[in-house]
Hints:
Blueprint: E1 2-7, E2 16-21, E3 29-38, H1 41-47, E4 64-71, E5 83-86, E6 89-91, H2 97-100, E7 112-113, E8 133-137, E9 142-143, H3 150-153, H4 159-169, E10 177-181, H5 185-196, E11 200-205, H6 211-217, E12 221-224, H7 228-233, E13 238-243, E14 258-266, H8 279-283, E15 287-290, H9 296-309, E16 315-319, H10 323-331, E17 338-342
Parallel strand pairs: 10-11, 10-13, 11-12, 13-14, 14-15, 16-17
Antiparallel strand pairs: 1-2, 3-4, 3-8, 3-17, 4-5, 5-9, 6-7
Amino acid sequence: MKTFGYAAQSATSPLAPFAFERRALRPNDIAMEVLYCGICHSDLHQARNDWGWSLYPIVPGHEIVGRVTEVGSEVTRYQVGDAVAVGCMVDSCQHCDQCRKGEEQLCREGNTQTYNSRDRLTGDLTFGGYSKHLVVREEFALRVPEGLDLARAAPLLCAGITTYSPLRTWNVGPGSRVGVIGLGGLGHMAVKLAAGMGADVTVLSRTPSKEADALALGADRLLVSTDAEAMAKAQSGFDLIIDTVPVKHDLNPYVPLLDVDGTLVIVGQLGPMEEQNTVPMLIGRRRIAGSPIGGIRETQEMLDFCAKKNILPDCEMIRMEQINHAFERLESADVRYRFVIDMASLQAA
Ligand code: NAP
Ligand code: ZN
């Protein structure tokens, strides 16, 4: 199938129009027309090869919502016209212990990512949602629940599940004290989801400038992480802290904020940390952990939870050709709180 999208040809080139082929449908594949695609900070990291494993050309996009246009001969879950969504994964081995538990993100053989990855059968590069059409095996498509606004649902597929999963792993519920470091795409979803679960939520931001937003999103307060006095007062006050900061940063000021047995879970930066003082970890039996996206079953659970609770991201809709400007704004934390590309703006050259 001939299609088109936007790709970066190297770590230093801007995204530009790109024509390519999607594979012919396998028996368990669905084809979809992409209607909306969110812009995650991971798209920017990978377009620029920040993590060192980018394969070019790269068509980013893993917060994808659209409609089924065609189904393979053995597809049972979806029909033409269904509203579907795709997140960060498009395949996994399907037989290891993690896949069988529904934790495909932890597949022992490595999951296949929606872009910047290799198809398990052909070895071809995978291309993401900054494109008009997508082909995916049905097991990796999600059902968009009735009533969830399609235009705003896309960011749930990465920012939503990446913050929902640790909230569930660490059993957040009424009375839990949750901190969220960095109020960006992931951070604002963490606030909405934790508040939706009944937690007491604190945003930890570098300046007080997002305080009104934090409260409007459902947080109980904003703590300025650069205010040493306020940080000292907040010691031992959190059960779980979700860290969404995209760049190397110092965790030493944050770990003492955890109560005994509390966990700081990193969902943001990938790579070496600053030197970490273990004293507050040992003294308070505090943990530093990490968490990648979430499994397919949990992603569906998150979508259903959001539909039931009417939880949706705050989106700024852009046109496809504004993508490079949007990347610049994302880099300077100038987005409240997720860019979403309206794919109707993407026309064949
Ligand atoms: P984002 O929208 O750019 O938000 C990041 C937030 O971090 C900013 O709004 C800002 O909040 C804070 N921040 C930015 N630069 C900072 C700096 N130099 N020092 C301290 N704080 C800073 O990014 P995002 O889309 O939420 O993604 C966040 C990170 O998560 C990225 O690294 C992304 O690759 C990663 N990610 C991981 C997974 C996973 O599976 N674990 C999934 C998706 C994304 P304040 O202004 O409030 O301080
Ligand atoms: Zn993402």
